[in-house]
Write a structure and sequence with these properties.
By secondary structure, this protein is of the alpha+beta class. It contains four helices and five strands; from the N terminus they run αβββββααα. Strands 1, 2, 3, 4 and 5 form a five-stranded antiparallel beta sheet that branches. The longest helix is centred in the N-terminal third of the chain and has 28 residues. The radius of gyration is 16 Å and the shape is globular.
Length: about 130
């Protein structure tokens, strides 16, 4: 039993590492170079999502979300904590999806449906007090 639990913890740690790498690679594609992670403000719901508070080399901070959803980022000013960052991403994705649905492009419409689905899931997670230790 202990060995199985240890493997689960190891798998969880590996997932968190992979999400961190995914988040930093994503930021690099946007021209943002990560300096460090603010661990105490970041949150993980393995294997669904990770919400990172990341510091850039220039001293600015961003919220970055990754996991079983599109990786995305926002300036730190949009939310005071990870829970509110999740809510912000949810609302942002719903607005983006609305715009994509109006393009008439089938591929964009499919992505819009994915955004809507993930946005609804994020909002549901935001509402669950037990996830946030409140």
């Amino acid at each position: 039993m202990t060995e199985q639990k240890q493997m689960t913890e190891t798998a969880q740690q590996q997932w968190v590492r992979e999400q961190y790498q995914s988040a930093t690679k994503y930021l690099a594609t946007k021209g943002l170079v990560t300096d460090s992670v603010v661990v105490e403000d970041s949150r993980y719901l393995v294997p669904v999502l990770a919400v990172w508070k990341l510091k850039m080399l220039d001293g600015t901070f961003f919220w970055v979300i990754s996991g079983d959803l599109p990786t995305d980022h926002n300036a730190i000013e949009v939310a005071p904590n990870a829970r509110e960052a999740v809510r912000h991403f949810s609302l942002k994705w719903q607005m983006q999806a609305e715009n994509l649905l109006n393009t008439g492009d089938k591929e964009q419409e499919e992505f819009a449906k994915l955004l809507i689905s993930r946005a609804e899931g994020l909002y549901g997670m935001h509402q669950q007090e037990k996830l946030w230790g409140v």
